[in-house]
Amino acid sequence: MPPNRVIGIDAGGTKLLGGVVDEDLVVHNRVHRLWRGADREETLRIVVEAVEEVRAVAPDVVGVGFGIPSLVSPAGVSVASVHLPLDDVPFGDLMAERLGLPVWVDNDVNAAVVAEHRYGAARGASHAVMMALGTGIGGGLILDGRVYRGATGAAGELGHMVVDVDGPPCPCGGRGCLEVLASGTAIGIAGTEAARAHPRSALGKALEADGAIRGSLVTELAHAGDELAAEAVCSVGRRLGAGLVSVLNVLDPEVAVIGGGAVAAGDLLLDPAREVLIAQGLGPPRMRVVPAHFGGESGMLGAALLALDGSRS
Amino acid sequence: MPPNRVIGIDAGGTKLLGGVVDEDLVVHNRVHRLWRGADREETLRIVVEAVEEVRAVAPDVVGVGFGIPSLVSPAGVSVASVHLPLDDVPFGDLMAERLGLPVWVDNDVNAAVVAEHRYGAARGASHAVMMALGTGIGGGLILDGRVYRGATGAAGELGHMVVDVDGPPCPCGGRGCLEVLASGTAIGIAGTEAARAHPRSALGKALEADGAIRGSLVTELAHAGDELAAEAVCSVGRRLGAGLVSVLNVLDPEVAVIGGGAVAAGDLLLDPAREVLIAQGLGPPRMRVVPAHFGGESGMLGAALLALDGSRS
Predict the structure, then answer these.
(1) Which of B233, B13, B44, B252 shows the shortest CA–CA distance to B138?
(2) A180, A311, B144, B311: least CB-packed within 10 angstroms?
(3) Distance from CA of B158 to the nearest CA of A (A)
(4) Is B118 exposed, middle or buried (0-12, 13-18, 19+ CB in 10 A)?
């Protein structure tokens, strides 16, 4: 008998990434969608369509796991979401009905940190955190070996630690949250500011040509040796480090796993963060700061694990 | 047979508070010491002298519990301390030797949160945090019903969450930590700034007369209706609120207990904090923010509980 296969869907703030995943965590088919700006119904429609696309080539899947950037209730309701129009949506029930398949739903980074803890960069740790740097910053916590959810299931929102009390407004309604200062979006903003200050630089020319600078471009230029771009990434890395100081001082985990699209910047981003952490964290240096083992796919694999675990029990 | 009695000692950054405590948590005799500026040997000498003072009237005590503002190892070593000269001091062994009594040692606010959780303001909660606002800000966490200590025992330092990434230096070596902005000391600083800006105010006259403004004076004036003082307390309360936003978003506890000397400011401090929390925290309003049931004595009672629990097992 062939092993169970499931579909894992990581529904990020800007894009959806899905795949058919087997019990060995091998990904057989992938699907991508860009959806920034879609309304609620359009967002749900895109999710269904993406699932149907991969299901067409893998009709044997036994269920679908979803990681969504929301506060998710135990019944699979998306109670509130900063980056998708999914406030108060019975996401699990809707998907089960539209897909005619068993579905499991959790917060995207709660799912991702399970994948990294069980098979990836946080393997063997009793206490681990994950931050996924993308449109915003998602967070997930493993405390004493298990996902920590708090009193209402809303815990782990590391992107919404306040790191700049009088800072810029955050899409969440707060001020000076870490995600405003250290997300993938923030790398793009730092690059845009550098481009404006230096119009004859590579960043400046890109801004003139395209009218906007995305974080991925800043990262590419930084990797190619562009000093201005590297400096922009470094400035964001230092702010990420301030967030990691809070994580260390409050949670004292063994490892902080950094994932999401922005971790493509690698040590250009993580080394400045580590420097701030070591200089400013309490006590002896000890928390490792490592990139996600599964890169940008931890969320999709974690979503698949929801379905693999769920279909076994 | 009379119930067991123990000595509980709360060793704060500015003062020591101790007492003889019985199994019903009744305090029979108290002892106070001010010790700001004492060096390591002097600090240890004051601790021993304070214990001997109360022991003289209660020679039947079966042990001593200490809450100290340090990272405390399981063996009772004070590994590092921001506010007392107790880095790398085998505190438990030293005290056991000098006192000839069984001793138990923990971080001061880890002890305090147990007292508040078991008998006080956090009773019945599965997830609770405590912040003790004094010279600095100490923190303690109850997660899933138990003290959460992290990988190395250093967790719960809520005063050293970074809330102002480019903010003023903190005694811990970091920058912009919550304790710089929202401790009892910070209330004194806010009062001093107000006094300088308004030399003919009550605060201004106090500054001229005494050369310094302490947080307790600002609080007294605020309670007496002085608007400038109330505004200073309010500004600190709002920054405390930013710290509570981080606590809510990361840990999602049912209740945050605010203790330490500065909680004498009561709702003048807590209401602005609650307003910021409700306006800026993720999800529906839910985390209660309450003063410590035991006021400034949670730490002493928690320290006594260490000894009461320890002497029973």
Answers:
(1) B13
(2) B144
(3) 6
(4) middle
| Strand locations in B126-254 (E) | 128-133, 137-143, 146-147
pLDDT, mean of residues B45-67? 97
A133-142 pLDDT tens trace: 999 999 999 9
Q: Do domains A5-112+297-312 and A124-292 have the same CATH topology?
A: yes
Mention every residue, 6+ apart, whose C-beta is less than 8 A from residue B126: A151, B142, B144, B145, B254
pLDDT at A231 over 60: yes
What CATH number should be reported for the domain whose range is B5-112+297-312? 3.30.420.40
The residue count for chain A:
313
- Say yes or no: B266 contacts chain A, CB-CB below 8 A: no
Eight-state DSSP code of residue A281: S
Sign of the Cα torsion A82, A86, A89, A95 reads negative
**pLDDT digit string (tens) for B60-105?**
999 999 999 999 999 999 999 999 999 999 999 999 999 999 999 9
Break chain A into its structural domains and give their ranges.
5-112+297-312, 124-292
Q: Which of B189, B265, B249 is nearest to A161 (CA)?
A: B249
Measured CA to CA, the distance from residue A228 to residue B157 in angstroms comes to 36
Q: What is the mean pLDDT of residues A265-287?
A: 97
Cβ within 8 Å of residue A252, ≥6 positions away: A127, A287, B149, B150, B151, B152, B153, B154, B155, B156
In this prediction the pTM is: 0.96
**For residue B25, pLDDT beyond 90:** yes
Rounded CA Rg of chain B: 19
Query: Taking the CA of residue A27 as centre, how many other CA atoms within 13 Å lie in the half-sphere pointing to its CB?
Result: 18
Architecture of the domain made up of A124-292: 2-Layer Sandwich (3.30)
- Gap between the Cα atoms of A205 and A90, Å rounded: 46
Widest CA span in chain B: 62
Ramachandran region, residue B288 (left: φ > 0; alpha: ψ -120 to 50; beta: rest): beta
Which of A224, A217, A252, A222 has the alpha carbon at shortest distance from A235? A222
Report residue A1's pLDDT band, with 50, 70 and 90 as the boundaries: low
Task: Say what percent of chain B tops pLDDT 70.
Answer: 99
Give A8-43 pLDDT, tens digit per residue: 999 998 899 999 999 999 999 999 999 888 999 999
| A246/B155 Cβ within 8 A | no
**Contact, A10 vs A108, CB < 8 A?**
yes
Average pLDDT, chain B: 96
Position B1 scores a pLDDT of 57
Q: What is the DSSP string of A56-98?
A: HH-TT---EEEEESEEE-TTS-EEEESSSS-TTB-HHHHHHHH
Select the residue from A88, A162, A245 to test the B interface by mutation, using most B Cβ atoms within 10 A.
A162
Mean pLDDT of B206-214: 95
Range 55-94 of B in CB contact (< 8 A) with A: 71, 79-80, 82
- Do residue B160 and residue A279 have CB atoms under 8 angstroms apart? no
Mean model confidence pLDDT for chain A: 96
Decide if B282 touches A, using CB distance below 8 A. yes
B85: tokens are 């000269």
